Amino acid sequence: MKKNLLILLIAMQAPFCWAVYSAQQKERHSQAESGLLDKMGQAQQQVSGTASELVANAMKLLGVPYRVGGTNDSSGYDCSGFVRAMYEKTIGLVLPHNAREQAFVTEKIDPTDLQPGDLVFFNTMKHAFSHVGIYLGEGKFIHSPRTGSKVRIEDMRDAYWNRRFNGARRVPIEDMSSQYLVQSIKYDYAPKLNNSPENYKNQH
């Protein structure tokens, strides 16, 4: 009789205990998810902040003249020198001073995933990745075009640029260090490139 009563009491308490356990588990999961969302939000804000700063720094140089091999505001920039300077100034990351090499050491992305601060590449010299600019959003990008011109904003949807578009790249800041980039060029890509002055001019 006592045994049956004990079993009955346990059976009656079981739903309550399960409800308490379930509530505790849900609370733990909720806290874990909340923490994860907070971390994701912080990371997103950091990335967005970096992109905003990069774009802001680039916009400050509107009107700076183009110069082959140029690497600073006073002398002017070529296209890859402009991109390199913006990333170095904004986050201290040194990209190669060559459009094709910049394409090699960055992450390929779908053009539909373009975000401000990403790199956009064009075939302007009858070979791939001969020109590069920084994406601003809404189909616009900023770049240093060519001799005789100045840093300016263009629309990728214009016929000229649309026909010559080669692809989009993202600089994976969290995974790439300056040392990695230098080693990538030194050991993987430099032997494949003709580094003559004439070729350099054609791959700015």
Summary keywords:
204 residues; alpha+beta; endopeptidase fold (from Nostoc punctiforme); 6-stranded antiparallel sheet; 8 strands; globular; disordered C terminus
Describe this protein's structure.
There is one protein chain. The protein is an alpha+beta fold and 204 residues long. It has a single domain, classed as endopeptidase fold (from Nostoc punctiforme), CATH 3.90.1720. It is built from 6 helices and 8 strands; from the N terminus they run αββααβββββαβαα. The strands form 2 sheets. Strands 3-8-4-5-6-7 form a 6-stranded antiparallel beta sheet. The N and C termini lie far apart (93 Å).
How would you summarize what this structure contains?
This protein has 204 residues and is an alpha+beta fold.
Protein topology:
Layout: H1 2-59, E1 71-72, E2 76-77, H2 79-91, H3 99-104, E3 107-109, E4 119-122, E5 131-137, E6 140-143, E7 152-155, H4 159-164, E8 165-170, H5 178-189, H6 197-202
Antiparallel strand pairs: 1-2, 3-8, 4-5, 4-8, 5-6, 6-7
